[in-house]
Every structure is written in structure tokens, then in C-alpha cells.
Write a structure and sequence with these properties.
Chain A: Keywords: ATP-binding, Nucleotide-binding, Transport. The complex is a heterodimer of chains A (299) and B (330). Chain A has 3 domains: 203 residues, Rossmann fold, CATH 3.40.50.300; 55 residues, no CATH class; 31 residues. The termini of chain A are close together. Chain A has 11 helices and 10 strands. Chain A is of the alpha/beta class and 299 residues long. Chain B has 330 residues and is mainly alpha-helical. Chain B contains 15 helices and 4 strands. In chain B, the strands form 2 sheets. In chain B, strands 1-4 form a two-stranded antiparallel ribbon. In chain B, a hairpin with a 2-residue loop joins β2 and β3. The longest helix of chain B is centred in the middle third of the chain and has 27 residues. Chain B is globular, with a radius of gyration of 21 Å. Classes of the chains: A alpha/beta (299), B mainly alpha (330). Chains A and B meet through α3, α4 and α6 of A and α8, α9, α10, α11 and α15 of B. The structure holds adenosine-5'-triphosphate and magnesium ion (MG).
Chain lengths: 299, 330
């Protein structure tokens, strides 16, 4: 069978229950094909990691999928609904919420106000009802409660009433993630959520990300820290030079020669140690041998 | 003239119709610039559209004053749509360019000689406020508080205008404390972040532009009613910059910033004028430094200097929050 001969880490695999399906998404900047994705699916209820060297096109791909940037060609659906050309705010309302690699906290709003802004369907956000507090006060109270719970979860409860602009870089990452959760997204797309977060907190955050999955949410995240990727992701997608070059379960992907190429070929900019490299190369060789043996067996 | 007259003259201006008009215009601009971060450099156009709708409808087309006021406010909605629809989706600077150009265009058109019959050219429209004057309950002799005098109709206009300003401050206080106001402030900080949370940024910016523009038109209408005249020179570009000055003195994104700013601005603008006038006449400042003819220019020079110092040492305005300042640098 064709599927059997296909490597376990071939790019563009179909998923049993895909929440997002994208086809032929291309975005060029001048002569540069920043994103050139033939086929891409995200499995519902799983944690998918998107990795790749700097400049691979991960952030650009995020921007395209969430409507913040327009592709040259391509179409994609979320829960079966087409999202091509849909405005970013509508994408978010449909349940697909992203964070930014360069954090966008609202500096001159307090942390709690940043959080409250994330809540959807607020009655008080209508011009006419804004003046009449009784119309929205109850809802505001329950949103605040939810916001406080999230802040506690992200260890930001002490900063509740500070201006978000006074937060440190790592705290901003945390606030942005917590704020995205206020939208109650089905699919949350995190662009390097752990960059600059201290190791101890990182560990507990990993737990939170896993608990998002347990709540039934789907997570797509970009990350350069391979240990973290291996630790929490169910599925890993590798991008290099705009293309998806491999995808599969973490261990298989990290053993894939295409991945080794992507990271060690042109770009020596990841945090792999020598031991890691040696291990990956060894694993890759073992896998290739296994594949050869497998194809021989079949024929 | 003695020194008390200098002081009382300054106070009269600080509370007078001019200050009230600039206060109203700044309240509108505060919604744009202070809360939403919209760079509207054409607040004078909103004022002019309002004022001229009333002046022309009543004088040229002999319509009812109160109906004309309503039309004047609606005209501001229209202007906001014309300016906003093409530019609010683009980067912030486009609105700035569009409004500054629109303000000049509106002034050139309404002041054009070829539209003399409709809008009265450079003389503008006048004699349209009779219905307003007939409502004036203040005794004809005017009012006097010690050395401070106001003419009867001026005082009436002040009461109406300042009441409107305080009412608007109250409404804006409620609005900006609400989730709606939070979205506006979020847009001011980073509109992409607000988009990513599912808010229709364009729609909110439009609401903000319309609301602030309508309040600007109200300022223009009050200006017309106060002097019973609207003329192109009332709505030149420096009007917009004076409104910005008023807003920045009081502190942007402060509910009472425009009120405080307008009072302080007009106190000093007129106070300095009277001061230098008296000082040169009394030879406190000798002729070889400055003659009394030159004195009238001093107020703008000193005011500019004060504004510079304010921006350097207190950029958040007099009532701004010191904590916010620490953040701006990042
Ligand atoms: N607005 C833009 N104009 C021109 N080129 C761009 C633009 N945005 C991205 N690029 C280019 O597209 C490529 C992909 O960039 P992108 O930010 O998507 O990479 P990334 O995978 O997110 O990298 P990193 O891991 O460093 O965040 C890069 O070569 C970048 O220079
Ligand atoms: Mg990136």
C-alpha cells in the first residue's frame, strides 16, 4: 500500500479529525517565498508543535492563517468553514486565537483590564449600553472572576492592578497567553510562548498547556526549545524555508534526516548540543536502515 | 487700567464663551486622540461643518434654528464617514493626512467667493441666532462678580455651553469606564492585539471618530451662536492646534482634562496679552525692548515656551497619571 511506503514523517499528512485544513498557502515577499505550504492539517484536541529554524516562515504562516496577512494563493478551513480572506477579528470570534511572538500587551491598561478585554460577547462593549452600567455589571463581574483565576494560574495575580507596560518580558508573554485564553478559544495558536520565561515557571506552564488539551482545546505552538517540544507535543510539524518538510510524532520527527538537514544544513542556529546532534544523526541512520529493510521486505 | 483689571480680564476669558467652545472641541478630540489614539488634525473642519450648517440653513435657506442644529450635528456624522471609511483601515498616519487636508478643503470651499450667495464668502454667515437670543433669561445689564463682568447674552451662552461640557464629561466618564471604553483604549495601545481578541477595530474607530466629530460640531455651533456669526477665519488650522494645546495642557485621556485645559489656556492667553499690554504702556518694559504694538505677539511666544516646558517636564498634562509616564519609554 502507498501509505505504508510513505515515511512516518512525510509532510502534509491527513488527520483523522482535523480542526484546521490548509492547502497551497503561498506568501512571497519580493522574490522570497516566505511560506509555501502544500497541505497542512491540525488534529483536533491535540498539541501540535511547529518548529523550524529562524526565518522558516512560522510566524508568517500564523499571520496568514489568522487573517493578519494575506496570502498570494491558498485556502484553508477551520471546523469546515472557509477562512480565506476573513478578517482577523472574525477569525478570533470563530474560536481561533493567536498570540504574538513580539508581545502586544496594552501598556497603559492594567493587567486585569488587559484580561477583561479578552472576554467575548460583552454587552458593555456596545456604544449605547456602555453608559448604563447595570446592563453589563454582572457580566463584567463574572469575566473578572474568570480573569483572576487565569492570572493566578499564570502567577500574575500579584500584578493585577499594575499597568501592563510595567511587566517584564517574560511576564508579558504570560499575560498574552492568559489573555488569549479569556477568548475561550477552540484552537489556540501560541508563537513562542515560552521565550524568556524562567525554567521553573516554564515547567508549570507546560502543565497548563497540557491541561488546555485536557479541557478539549487544540494547541498549535511555535517553539525553539526541543526539550519542551518533546515533552508536551503530540505531533510535530517542521518548517524550513517556507515549506513543511516533515511532520509526525516528536520522536520520529526528531530522528528524521530531513529535519536534521533543515536544522543543521544551512542553519546552525538551534540549541542542539553535541550529544543531541550525535543522537539525532544516529537515530536518523537507524531509521533509514529500518526503512530500507522494510521496503526490501515488501518487495 | 490697573493690575486687577489684568487679572479680571484673564478670568473673564478663562470662563468666557471662547474657553467653553475650545473645551467642547477638546472633549471631542479627547475621544479621538486621548482615548482611541486617532490622529485627527481636522477638528476645525468638524466645528466648521456644524457652525456653517446652522448659519447657512438659517440665514440663507431660512430654516428653523433648532432643526438646523440637528442638521449640523448630522453633517459631522457625514464628515466622519467620508474621512473614516477610506482611512481607518489604514495605518494611523493616513487619517492624520486626510483630516488635515479635509480641514483646509472644507474651509476653502465654504469660504469660496463663488459660493458667496450660499455661505457668504470670507464674511461668512451672521444674524442667525435670534431664536437663541430670545431664550436668554439673563437681565440685559449683564452680570457682575466684583471686578468680573459678563455681558448678558455671553453669560447665557456660557451657562448653556459649560452645562453641556459638564454633561458630556459625565457621559464620557461613564463610557470610558465601560467595556466599550476599554476597547477604545486597547485600540490606542495596540490595535492588532485588540483584533486578535475578536473585536472589530474598524467599527470602534468609526464610532469614536463620529462621536468626537459630533461633539466638535457642537463646539462649532456654540461658536456660531455665541458671536451670531460664522466665518472661515474662525476655523483655520490654528484652531485645531489650539484645541490640541487645550487637550494636552489638561492631559489627554482625562475626563476633565479639556475643561481644565481650556480654562488654563484662555486664562494665560488673555492674561499674558493684558499683562504685556499694560507693562509696555506703563513703561515697566522700556520701549527699546518692546513697544506696545509688539506686546500682542508676546502671548503666543510665552505660551509656546510654556507648552514646550510642559511637554518636557509634564508630558502627561496637568492631570495626567504619573505612573503612565514610566511606561511610555518602552
Ligand atoms: N513583512 C515582511 N517583509 C519582508 N520579508 C518578511 C516579512 N515578514 C517576514 N519576512 C521574511 O519571511 C521569512 C519568514 O519569516 P518569519 O517571521 O515567518 O520566520 P519565523 O519562522 O517565524 O522565524 P523565527 O523563528 O525567527 O521567529 C524571513 O526570511 C523574513 O525575513
Ligand atoms: Mg517567528
Amino acid at each position: 500500500m502507498a501509505a505504508e511506503t510513505q515515511s512516518v514523517t512525510a509532510p502534509g499528512q491527513t488527520k483523522e479529525n482535523a480542526i484546521l485544513v490548509a492547502d497551497n498557502v503561498v506568501r512571497t515577499f519580493g522574490g522570497l517565498r516566505a511560506v509555501d505550504v502544500e497541505h497542512f492539517e491540525i488534529e483536533r484536541g491535540k498539541i501540535t508543535a511547529l518548529i523550524g529554524p529562524n526565518g522558516a516562515g512560522k510566524t508568517t504562516f500564523f499571520n496568514l492563517l489568522t487573517g493578519f496577512d494575506k496570502p498570494d494563493t491558498g485556502a484553508w478551513t477551520f471546523n469546515g468553514e472557509s477562512l480565506s480572506g476573513v478578517a482577523p477579528y472574525r477569525v478570533a470570534r470563530k474560536g481561533m486565537v493567536r498570540t504574538f511572538q513580539l508581545t502586544k500587551v496594552l501598556s497603559r491598561l492594567t493587567v486585569i483590564e488587559n484580561m477583561r478585554l479578552g472576554a467575548t460577547g460583552q454587552r458593555g462593549e456596545k456604544l449605547l449600553s456602555s453608559v448604563f452600567a447595570p446592563l453589563w455589571r454582572d457580566q463584567e463581574r463574572s469575566n473578572t472572576k474568570r480573569a483572576e483565576d487565569l492570572l493566578e494560574r499564570f502567577k500574575l495575580d500579584a500584578k493585577r492592578d499594575d499597568f501592563a507596560g510595567s511587566l517584564s518580558g517574560g511576564q508579558r508573554k504570560l499575560l498574552e497567553m492568559a489573555r488569549a485564553l479569556m477568548v475561550d478559544p477552540e484552537l489556540i495558536m501560541l508563537d513562542e510562548p515560552m521565550a524568556g520565561v524562567n525554567p521553573a515557571l516554564k515547567q508549570s506552564l507546560l502543565g497548563h498547556v497540557k491541561s488546555l488539551r485536557d479541557e478539549g482545546r487544540t494547541v498549535l505552538f511555535v517553539e525553539h526549545d526541543m526539550d519542551m517540544v518533546r515533552d508536551i507535543s503530540d505531533w510535530v510539524v517542521v518548517m524550513a524555508q517556507g515549506k513543511i518538510v516533515a511532520e509526525g510524532p516528536p520522536d520520529d520527527v526528531m530522528a528524521d534526516p530531513a529535519v536534521v538537514d533543515a536544522y543543521l544544513g544551512a542553519h546552525h542556529d538551534t540549541e542542539l548540543s553535541f550529544e543531541d546532534e550525535a543522537k539525532i544523526v544516529a537515530e536518523a541512520e537507524a531509521e533509514i536502515e529500518a526503512e530500507i529493510a522494510e521496503t526490501e521486505e515488501q518487495s | 487700567m490697573n493690575w486687577l483689571d489684568v487679572l479680571s480680564g484673564a478670568v473673564e476669558q478663562a470662563l468666557g464663551p471662547q474657553a467653553m467652545i475650545y473645551c467642547l472641541a477638546a472633549i471631542g478630540l479627547n475621544i479621538h486622540f486621548g482615548y482611541t489614539g486617532l490622529l485627527n488634525f481636522g477638528q476645525a473642519a468638524f466645528m466648521m461643518v456644524g457652525g456653517y450648517a446652522v448659519g447657512a440653513l438659517v440665514q440663507t435657506w431660512e430654516q428653523n434654528l433648532w432643526l438646523s442644529i440637528l442638521v449640523g450635528l448630522l453633517a459631522a456624522v457625514l464628515l466622519a464617514l467620508v474621512l473614516g471609511v477610506p482611512t481607518l483601515r489604514l495605518r494611523a498616519d493616513y487619517l492624520a493626512i486626510a483630516t488635515i487636508a479635509a480641514a483646509e478643503a472644507v474651509r476653502q470651499v465654504l469660504g469660496a467667493a463663488s459660493l458667496n450667495d450660499q455661505f457668504g464668502g470670507q464674511d461668512g454667515r451672521f444674524g442667525f441666532a435670534d431664536d437663541m437670543k430670545s431664550l436668554n433669561p439673563i437681565e440685559p445689564g449683564g452680570v457682575h462678580f466684583g471686578p468680573i463682568d459678563f455681558r448678558s447674552y455671553d453669560f447665557f451662552i456660557m451657562i448653556v455651553g459649560w452645562s453641556l461640557a459638564l454633561l458630556l464629561c459625565g457621559v464620557i466618564f461613564l463610557m470610558m469606564r465601560s467595556p466599550w471604553g476599554r476597547v477604545l483604549k486597547g485600540i490606542r495601545e495596540d490595535e492588532d492585539a485588540v483584533r486578535s481578541l475578536g473585536k472589530n477595530v474598524y467599527f470602534y474607530k468609526m464610532q469614536s471618530l463620529i462621536l468626537g466629530g459630533v461633539i466638535g460640531a457642537a463646539a462649532g455651533i456654540m461658536s456660531g451662536l455665541a458671536t451670531d456669526n460664522v466665518a472661515p477665519s474662525d476655523f483655520a488650522t490654528d484652531t485645531t492646534f489650539f484645541v490640541y494645546t487645550v487637550l494636552l495642557i489638561g492631559g489627554a485621556a482625562r475626563v476633565f482634562g479639556p475643561v481644565a485645559g481650556a480654562v488654563i489656556f484662555w486664562f494665560f492667553l488673555n492674561g499674558l496679552d493684558l499683562f504685556f499690554d499694560k507693562a509696555t504702556h506703563d513703561n515697566l518694559i522700556p520701549d527699546w525692548i518692546m513697544t506696545s504694538d509688539q506686546a500682542s505677539l508676546m502671548r503666543l511666544i510665552v505660551l509656546g515656551l510654556v507648552l514646550m516646558l510642559l511637554m518636557i517636564y509634564r508630558p502627561q498634562g496637568i492631570f495626567g497619571d504619573r505612573r503612565e509616564l514610566a511606561i511610555d519609554g518602552r
